[in-house]
Specification:
0% strand
Amino acid sequence: MLKSTRVTIAILTAIIVLHTLIAAAMSTAHAAVSDPSHADWSKAVVESTIKRYPTAESLKGWGYAKSLYLYGEYLVYLRTRDPRYLDHVKAWIDLHIDDKGIINRPINALDYMLPGNLLLILYRETFQ
């Protein structure tokens, strides 16, 4: 009977220690995720993309996917106010639109209309 009591106490002690360790690990993990200074993933994505596509020519064609990404880059610009982000968006627009406002490709699909939103954003940012 004394042996079974010791085993029970040992098991309960192990459970309490394990629970304490798990709770401490979860608390540390939660603090790392909820701490905004720990990782700024949106900024990391923009920095990585600018590193891979530093010029408008390297980012290439007028289209939905690229303009959607550039809109996200603009949102990061609004938060960080890093002028490189807005310059990157502007350079891409400047590559595709001449001084008369003519886009260098026909707008013959809905996918080619989304980049127009960037024109409105750039107007607001540069002329107001």
